[in-house]
Design brief:
Layout (H helix, E strand, L loop, with lengths): L5 E14 L2 E14 L3 E5 L6 H8 L7 E10 L2 E2 L5 H7 L4 E4 L3 H4 L6 H12 L5 H14 L5 H4 L9 H13 L5 E5 L7 H18 L2 E6 L2 H7 L2 E6 L2 E7 H6 L4 H8 L49 E4 L2 E3 L2 H5 L1
Parallel strand pairs: 3-8, 3-9, 6-7, 7-8
Antiparallel strand pairs: 1-2, 1-4, 4-5, 9-10, 10-12, 11-12
Helix pairs in contact: 4-5, 4-7, 7-8
Length: 326
């Protein structure tokens, strides 16, 4: 890992939510890095901490949530040490984020072209409204939107789901950020439109030369778009490596179980596999392996200790005592 090539480094990140029911341990010692012009996928089932991780990078954890410890270095700046004015200069210009639901994220009473142009005006004081709008229309055209000028005058309720997602991508990429966080960018779209959106994103990312943090629960999307992947479970990163290593040679029992849940097209009569048990309550502080109650390879040690992260090789790690035995 070259220091000059390193863009984002998250180290021992912990996030807590202080609720009436107790303290929710949302993230536990989350550590990962992202290089320039690289796509890192964060995968895992609903509630594992993917979106919380993404929002923490942008310092968007609102009360009752709080980042309690750790560091988030973007280039040479620790984002957790910046004041609000400094972090606002980074949000939207150097780091952008595509939210899960484009229809909710778009302002319903402002034309979509003006919303894309507004992003530029906020972050570039040298532009006037006319030039910002011209840049916005150019970006819409790059995203394959037919008659971009006419489409820019529409309101969000006049757009389909796929078109709304294109508008959101345009808003986030028009400033040419160094890092794009994509939080389930295709979850609300059908398969055909999903493929189109992913291809458009990949083409624009290559052109702009931005890095991508892809949040997804879809292993197919991850395989198609990512260079490396971090698998999360109950607020922990349990395995990390290249997409090929993680998909072809998974080392953590949770990753192995997650891959087994994907339907086997070769044998349609095979019953669907499901991971036994339930996700543990995050109200309890972690004292052992969080996956132990659901693991098929559980040992006594798993119920008593928190497994450290073991290096399988230089680019593949897993937090499991089985790796140490191997």
């Amino acid at each position: 890992m070259s220091i000059n090539n390193l863009l984002l480094r998250v180290q021992d990140l912990k996030v807590r939510f202080y609720t009436l029911r107790g303290v929710v341990h949302a993230l536990e010692r989350v550590t990962f890095h992202l290089n320039r012009q690289e796509t890192l996928g964060i995968a895992g089932e609903t509630g594992c901490g993917k979106s919380v991780t993404a929002r923490a990078v942008l310092r968007l954890i609102d009360p009752p949530g709080r980042i309690v410890s750790g560091s988030i270095f973007f280039e040479d700046k620790n984002l957790l040490e910046l004041d609000e004015a400094a972090i606002r200069k980074i949000r939207g210009s150097e780091i952008s984020m595509i939210m899960q639901e484009p229809k909710v994220s778009l302002n319903p009473v402002i034309r979509v072209g003006d919303q894309v142009a507004e992003t530029l005006l906020v972050h570039d004081s040298s532009l006037n409204r006319r030039s910002a709008r011209r840049h916005a229309i150019d970006m819409l055209a790059q995203l394959g939107i037919p008659d971009a000028s006419k489409m820019s005058r529409r309101f969000p309720h006049e757009l389909s789901g796929g078109m709304s997602q294109r508008i959101m991508i345009a808003m986030m990429l028009v400033t040419r950020p160094k890092l794009l966080i994509a939080d389930e960018p295709t979850s609300a779209l059908d398969v055909t439109i999903q493929a189109q959106i992913l291809e458009l994103m990949k083409a624009l990312v290559r052109e702009i030369k931005t890095a991508v943090l892809m949040i997804t629960h879809d292993l197919g999307v991850m395989a198609e778009t990512c260079d490396r992947v971090a698998v999360m479970y109950a607020g922990n990163v349990v395995e990390m490596g290249s997409v090929r290593d993680v998909l072809k040679n998974p080392q953590h029992p949770y990753t192995q179980s997650l891959l087994r849940t994907v339907p086997d097209n070769a044998n349609p009569e095979q019953p669907l596999y499901s991971i036994r048990g339930n996700v543990p309550s995050l109200l309890e502080p972690q004292t052992n392996c969080v996956f132990a109650p659901r693991c098929e390879h559980i040992m006594r040690r798993c119920e008593q200790e928190i497994p450290p992260v073991y290096d399988i090789d230089d680019h593949h790690q897993a937090a499991c005592f089985l790796v140490e035995k191997q």
